[in-house]
Amino acid sequence: MAMDTTSPQSAPRLSMRTRRAIWVWAFLALPVLFYSVIRFYPTIDAFRLSFTDWNLMSKPAYIGLQNYRDMFASAEFWKVFRNTFAYLIIGTPISLLLSFLIAYFLDRIRFGHTFLRALYFLPFITTASAMGWVWRWFYQPAPTGVINSVLGSVGMGQLDFLRSTTWALPSIMVTAIWAGLGFQIIIFMAGLRSIPQTYYEAAKIDGVGDFAILRKITLPLLKPTTVFLVVFSSIGFLRIFDQVYNMTTNDPGGPLGTTKPLVLMIYQTAFNSYQMGAAAAQTVVLFTILLFISLLQLWILRTR
Amino acid sequence: MAAIDTTLSPPLPMSRIKPGRIVMWTVLFIGGLLMITPILFMFSTSLKTSSQIYDLRLIPQSPTLANYIEVLTEGQFPRWFLNSSFVAICVTASNIFFDSLVGYTLAKFRFRGRQFVFIAILSTLMIPTEMLVIPWYLMSANFGWLDSYWGIMFPGMMTAFGTFLMKQFFETVPDDFIEAARMDGLNEFTIWWKIAMPLVTPALSALAIFTFLGNWTAFFWPLISTTSKELYTLPVGLTSFAVEQAIQWEMIMTGAAIATIPTLVVFLVLQRYIVRGVMLAGLKG
């Protein structure tokens, strides 16, 4: 019966539906083409290339898993792997702790709040390559380098920074932490603001101290923000490139390869030695690590 | 007022005490100054002559714009500046158009394949750029896109992040608005452009700012896809310039300052939008 009453109108209604579908696919046509050609095809291509030996001159030769075998057998790869995780494992906790502390106290300040926040946020919007050179200058030996000059003027010893196999990586890491801190502070402050004030008021009425409030209310409710930032920061450190490249141009990734991260290795393998297959295999490793971290995030937030 | 404060203060936490506040403010202020120290020193040194660079006073004794004049007239900085501007503006315009068009379509139309398209686009967030650069490079070589503006721009013309952000915002636009526009006989494109887009301007401004800054500071792909100096973007040009200058730090700092000034201007003018945008993006993403 219901069908009967609508049947006379079903023809124009169907055509309206079709018309809307035509609009939809007209809107999506270019984007679908874009994502297929510029995102999905290259992804598959990267996997395919990783099974080939190709120097751009001859035709690519299929060599199975040889690139992976060579990579996992090479000492250089494991050194780079260790470097990359050194950036991540030291850099992430330090930057998270610093940004949380700053956000926690900055959130309580009313006087000059916008001004203070701007000071902390400013480095985030600078150009990494430009700031890489500024920090490189800071790290120079005295009398050029700012830090060593200050150390010298207060009678302290000089530090080698970028020339030392021990301290070059931490020095670059400081630059990367500095550049990302402002973003993390803003995200932490947004997270802090999203916690309902009533919780704090209730806790205060019950006479709970500041530290207990922080431990029992703030930190647990901030968990999604923290997880997001841990993942975001980890991914950032795993992909570190701009700072390392600009701070070590005389010997990229040096001294003695002690600062070389995975992405710099990929860049050199692909665009300095033109071993496209081997470089593709290295990108697959990077992809796998990043995928694992993203899935870990989803899993942690689901069990919440 | 004061009487109420004192009667209530014993059960309240310590944060009411003023000296603590002052210490906290001072510590945060000093920390903030430390954060911008590299930027301040960069500008300071860019205003010094080569004989003054060992003088670490922040205010130069006799500030001069000579370095800027030399860098801007003898180097290729003006060209790189234009290249970066052109690339960043084109990519931003493209993202504003396509990301919001796709976001709108996914948010406001029910059609077969909608979920599939959404998940497919979202899944590209998992693919790191570094994995795509080799195929992009080969593709560019095949099509003759290396060393061209299009070659620098094409990978970023649409982003999953922007699409997702816009979809979230279009979902808050009431369907009634769109239905009413349909009743008035407007076509779907006009409804999107004239009715829906003006309702999501905060999200659009956030997307525009991020895309612009992201492309202005982009380094990895422009470094790979360009080989001739005429096509370098500012960050890549700066690196090649700095390598040539070697130890002339006042010149390198001048170059770095030129690369930084536009982002500082954008930040100072749009500070509120940027901070709000980061919060929006961080929470939605």
From TrEMBL, chain A:
InterPro entries: ABC_transporter_permease (IPR051393), MetI-like (IPR000515), MetI-like_sf (IPR035906)
A GO CC term attached to the entry: plasma membrane
Superkingdom, taxonomy of origin: Bacteria
TM region(s), chain numbering: 21-41, 85-106, 118-138, 167-190, 221-241, 279-301
ABC transmembrane type-1 domain location: 81-297
CDD domains registered for this protein in UniProt: TM_PBP2
Protein name per Swiss-Prot or TrEMBL: Carbohydrate ABC transporter membrane protein 1, CUT1 family
Automatic annotation (TrEMBL), chain B:
Keyword Cell membrane belongs to the record: yes
GO terms of biological process kind: transmembrane transport
Compartment list: Cell membrane
Sequence ranges assigned to domain ABC transmembrane type-1 in this UniProt record: 81-270
Spans through the membrane: 22-43, 80-104, 116-137, 149-170, 191-213, 251-270
Keyword hit for Transmembrane: yes
Gene3D superfamilies attached to this UniProt entry: MetI-like
Its membrane topology: Multi-pass membrane protein
Highest taxon in the source lineage: Bacteria
GO cellular component, one term: plasma membrane
Xref: PROSITE patterns: ABC_TM1 (PS50928)
Keywords, alphabetical: Cell membrane, Membrane, Transmembrane, Transmembrane helix, Transport
PANTHER family: ABC TRANSPORTER PERMEASE PROTEIN MG189-RELATED, ABC TRANSPORTER PERMEASE PROTEIN MG189-RELATED-RELATED
Family: Belongs to the binding-protein-dependent transport system permease family.
Protein name as catalogued: Carbohydrate ABC transporter membrane protein 2, CUT1 family
Lineage: Bacteria, Pseudomonadati, Pseudomonadota, Alphaproteobacteria, Rhodobacterales
